[in-house]
Every structure is written in structure tokens, then in C-alpha cells.
Amino acid sequence: MSQITEQQIKQKMLALPDGSPNYDEMWTRIRLEVERRRSGWSEHTDVVPGKPALSRVRQWTLAAAGGTAVYFDQQTDREVVTADPAGQRVNVSAEVDGVKLTLDNAVIGHQTMDDTDRMALQMSLTGLEDQKFDYASFKEAEIVDLDSGKKIAVDFGGFDARSGVDQLKLTEYISENLPTSEQKKSYRIVTKDLYLTRRFETPLTGKLAAGKEYEVIPEKGLRIKLTSYNVVLNGAKLNLEYEANQAEPLPEDYDPNRANYESSSYLIAKSGDKTLGNSSIGWKKGSKTQSFDLKSLTKQERNNLQFAYSYAETVKKIQGTWTLDFTVEGTQANTPAQSVPIQDGAALEERTGMKLSEAKVTPFEVQIPVKRKNDSSVLQDGKFMYYEGLTLQAGDVEVPGLQAPIPGLPYNPLQGISAQSETMYFNFRDNEIQDLSSEPLTLKLRNALVARVYPDIWTNIQPPAEKTQSVSETMPDQSVMVYKVTRKGKDVQVNTQTRNKFYMVTGTQLKVDGKTYERSETESQGKYNGDIGYQVDVFKNVPEGSEFSINAGTYGVYDSSRDIDIQIR
Amino acid sequence: MNDLELFENYKTTVYRYCLYMLKNKGDAEDVCQEVFVKAMLADRRELRSEKAWLLRIAANECHGLTRRRSRGREKEQEAFLQAAPLHAVQSVESGYERRETKSEFGLLLKDVKPRFREVLLLYYMADLPMAEVAEMLNLPLGTVKSRLNRGLKSLKKRMEEADRPSKKGSEFHVSNY
Question: What domain count does chain A have?
């Protein structure tokens, strides 16, 4: 009989060693990765004309159930706002060595997405017109409530100079110690030591190949070794991984707690005058993985790819302290929500069955509640699902939005947030915050997705084997489904090309000798979007049999004839 | 709790779970990193237990990685597969003392079947209530109890076997059980 007690095992389990990993380094990688995902990078980034915009602000990047995150593409290049600023004009400045920091405006409003009141402090920086740099950031910054002496939590970001040093704007948000609409409150912003950072590029000479080493900063002895270089998906995607022989360069004001993507080093790809955005980048211990989406390049452009090592370096420091004392008057800074009835909704209702309620407009966001004639979660054939392209033209700014929850769709991207009923959401970032009280608002809806359901269309296939078989079926709506079927041990995998044509809702079904099998929800997944998109459905423990067939399940097709512009105001 | 506090409070629990489930330091670091990245991007306001939630993400990530590895889907990570396995703590202690180190126990634990090891780690190491473990793994409570018992039995057996040679031939005083 065992003499080892449960209690002894528990004690040993509690004392299990962790091998002392470098948690600080891990934290840095986590911060960088979070920053990257928050900045809106996705697997679908196309060729970008310039460099991706820097954004620190979390935008509708939300968690779905089960620990799976869902990320939305963010439009990175936004227009410069020319409408009137919202809230209170503050216009308080401080200057050090000719560099002037100005607090231009303070705007208070409610943000439904976070369910918080917050104040946007819109600032500008001047006096750096003769400098060459990409970002300017303060080494230290704090905001103090002068009435209570309390320091207010703030995560000061950087000024982005890539669009020009004459437009250096920064918006910070605080959500505590705000004045009510009847109050006045005094604050102090203190910033110290301004660092100007510039990104540099060193071309990697020769053709890239796994195992090759490249000298990237000779004066520092920095070399990188490409450990992996794979072109996959018929040439549409490039995955690579590299290791550096020493710590990669970082700006002097680098702070792991404030690390952002643009502080780090990475490879960039170019072909002719096109610069290819990283479609994904991953920080691992000792190495970095990157992916480039090549699908928009011609074969010749793919053959002519050139690579460069890109890194950030501090180019100038302006040492000193900028102190801004200011008072916010609740009556001026608070911008109450407006309700705007939508008069022009008949055409939309006719095309989609959706009726739009009053738009709620604040400086930070616009929400439009949606009601449907048929809000059943059952997707019948021909039912309108939603518009993939949702844009609000507000004054001079076009803001992309999203709509949720959609009846009948398997997930709600806003789960856990404030979406109890179906609503269209548009939120304004940073410099887009403006006085919308008299601005025209136009809703632009594009690429309607319409449900297709053909439960009786089963496509016969050969018994699945390790060798992939490909079969196609022309559906009654003339959509051509292409299935690639492979047996992997006890499981069967069905790969359906979605490209830009379909949105697979339920996924495929598999029938074996008359018995229908549903896909595994946890193992099935959609991969990529656009021209190379496909859906992988995994069917678990599928027996051998003689008659196999596949049904496409419910899917959506695009119907551009339902595109519509709706004048809200 | 802000992001840094979340990481500081639970990094060891999450990392240890990943380490003893995946048996590979590099994998454990990557999965632990992914767990906290997802956590930081998520809305945590409605959470009842941050620890249980983080471990749920960790469990999903570990399952996913194990599944992908077993099917050889991630060819680009082959190099990573060759990373050094979990090592025992470097030690110059004598055979008996070394066998009694915590890491020795860890090596025995890693030989326990994953489905049993998983509940042992969540229940004993992470100190989660059994009902929470069941909910987290989407298993009936009875199944969790059964796996826990079988895991304990398997672990005790390994501990006894590891102890046996020293009992026969060691000059040291043997058992502290």
C-alpha cells in the first residue's frame, strides 16, 4: 500500500520549479505583440504605399469566448480633420529649447464601447520643423489633478512625424477625476525629456535563403541569420524567421513597459517602388518570425523582391521639463450625446429588411441601432446577413465600422462588451475627434452578404484517403464550391476555397453511408481572407465507408446590387 | 488589475502549467506569451476568476499546440521542436538528494499521461476548485474526479518506483514518507 499521501503530492505540486525563465524578456515580448495586434495588423494586409500608421489606442479589439481573440482590421491611413474641434479650446503651451508643447482642446464624452466617461486631451508639438525624425516621445509624462493632488494614470504615447513634422498631434485620454458638466477642475501635465527617433534601413544583399547570414549594422557588428525562408500558398505568402547575433538596436528611451512595434527591429520587403507591409510578426525567444502577403504582386515582382533590415535609433534628445497648467470647465468640455433620427431608411429596409433607429452621436463615436423584419437566428436561403463594408462619412472623416450581433452568425465579435441588441458602431480616434453637432453624416454600406442554404445538395466524393482529392460542385446560385478532402488518421479534413467569394457560416457537413457528421468546432477554422482564403473543416473519428458526400452548409455570397448610401444628416 | 499586475500575479502559475504540459521550455514560453497577449487584448471586466480564465486560455493553447504538433501541420516550427527538452535543475547533489529534488518530482510528473497531468496541475498546482477544473476543461465533474484519482495513482506509482533502488542500495536514510 502506498505511503505517499495526497497532501505530500499537493505540496510537491505547489513547489514545482519553473526553471527560472526570463520573465522580464517575456513581458517585453508580450507588450510588443499586444502593441502589434492593437495597431491593427492582420493576416490580410496588402501592399501599402508608405509605412503603417502608428496607433497606441485600442480599437475594438475584442475577445470572443474560449480564449480566442478576434481582431478587426483597422483603417490605418485616416484623413486629416478640418472640422471644428470638439469640447473646450484650452490653448496652453510650454516651451523648452524652442520646442513648444500645446494642449489645444479637452473633450469629455461617454464611450459606450468601454462604458466609460473619458476626457480626450488633444495636444500638438511645434519647433521641430528643421529636424529629421519619425517619432517624438517624452521619456516621462504625468497628469495631476491639482484639486486633489492625485496623479492620474496615463500612458503617454508618441507624436508621429511620418506624415510631416508640421502636423505633430497627440491625443491622450483620462477616465478618472473628470469634472461633471457643472464643475471646473484644474490639472497639470508634466512631460520630461523629448526623444526624437528615426527608423533606418539596411539592404540585405543577395538572394535571401535559409541558413545565410547578413551583416546589417557593420559598425555595431550586428548580423542576422535567416533560419527559415518559406514561400507557401502557391507563392502568395512568405514566412521567414531570423536570429540576431546580439541584442537588436533600440531607441535610447526604450521602456519595456511602453514598448511599441515601431521601437523594434524587423525585416521589410520591397519590389520596385512597392513596400510590402508585414502581415504578421511574432516575437519568440531568441528569434523573430515574419510573414509577408505576396498575393498582390505579379510573378515578376515576386521574383524581384528585395529585403532590408529596419531598426529605430534615437537621433536627438531635448532635455527639459514642459509643464502645462490648465482648467477644464465641464460646461464647455462635456459634449452631450445627440440623437439624430434617420429619415432616409426606406430604401435600405426594402433591400435588406433592416430598419435603422435614431443615431446616437458623441465626439467619440456614432451608434446606430438596427431592427430587422426577420431577426430569427435561422438563416434561410436568400436572407440578408450584413454588409461587409460599413463606413460613416462624418464631416471630412471616413470611419470604418462594424455591426453586431448579427442574428444567425455563430459568433458575436462584441461579446462581453455592451452589445445587447444589434447595432452599427463607428468610433473616432485621436485627431478624428471633432465637433459633429453640425457636420453632415452619411452611412455608406457596401458588399452585402446574402445567405445561401442548400441542404439537399450533396456532392459525392471518393472515400477519403491520405492523398487529397479535389471535387467541385456548381451550386444553384452558380457559386462553384471546390472541396479538397484528405483523411488524416481517424479524421477527415475538408478544405473549401472561399477566396473573395464566400463567407462560410456553418461550415461543411460530411455524410458517410447515410450518417451525417458535423465538423469539430474547436479544430475547424477559416484561414486568411481575400484571394487565398479557405475554410478548413475537421471531422473527427470518421469511419471507413463506401459512400461519402459533402454539403456546403450555410454560406454567404456578396451582392453588390444592395450597396447603398444613407444620408443621416 | 492592470496588465502588468495580471502578468506579475499569474505568470508563474501559467508558465508552470504550460511547462509541465508541453515539457519544453521554448514552447512553454511561447504559449505563456500568447496567453497573456490574448488576456491583455480581451475585456476582463466581467471575469470572476482571472486565474481560472488565464489557465483556460493556457489549456486551449496547449491543446492546440499539441494537436498541431501531432499532425505535423506546422512545418515552419520544426526547428523549434528540436529545442532543448525540459531539463532537471542542474545539481551536483548525491543520487538520493537529487532524486528528492523538486525537479525530480517534475520529471516524474511529466511522464503521467497528459489528460491526468492536466487535472493534477490545475487542481493541485494552480489550486483551482474541482468544479472549476471541470468547467474549464468542459468535462463532467465525475470525469475530473476519476482523472484526478488515476493521475494520483500513476504519480504515486512512479514516485515509489523512483524511490525503490535507493531503498535497496543507498547508505542514506531513505524515506520521508
Answer: 2
- Residues A432 and A493 occupy one common structural domain: no
Is pLDDT above 70 for A111? yes
Nearest CA to CA, how far is A307 from chain B (Å)? 20
Task: Answer whether A55's CB lies under 8 Å from A40's CB.
Answer: yes
**Residue A346, domain CATH:** 2.60.40
A190-203 CB burial, b ≥16 within 10 A, e <16: bbebbbbbbbeebe
Q: Which residues in chain B touch residue A67, judged by CB atoms under 8 angstroms apart?
A: 35, 38, 53, 56-57, 60-61
CA of A419 vs chain B CAs: smallest distance (Å)? 13
The yes/no answer to whether this complex scores an ipTM above 0.85 is: no
Burial status of residue A315 (CB atoms within 10 A of its CB: 0-12, 13-18, 19 or more): middle
Site of grid cell 464631416:
A395
Residues of chain B found within 8 Å of residue A523, distances taken between Cβ atoms? 67
Domain for residue A102, yes or no? no
How far apart, in whole angstroms, are the C-alpha atoms of residue B29 and residue B18? 8
B68 touches A at CB < 8 Å: no
The alpha carbon of residue A337 and the mean position of all alpha carbons in its chain are separated, in whole angstroms, by: 27
The CA distance from B60 to A68, in Å, is: 9
Q: Model-level pTM?
A: 0.61
CATH 1.10.1740, applies to B1-87: yes
Alpha-carbon gap, residue A406 to A372, rounded angstroms: 10
Q: Out of A6, A17, A239, name the one closest to residue B152 (CB).
A: A6
Judge whether A14 is closer than 8 Å to chain B, CB to CB: yes
pLDDT at A420: 66
Domain assignment of residue A166, yes or no? no
Take residue A491 and report the three cell numbers written for it.
479524421
In this structure, the answer to whether residues A445 and A463 fall within a common structural domain is: no
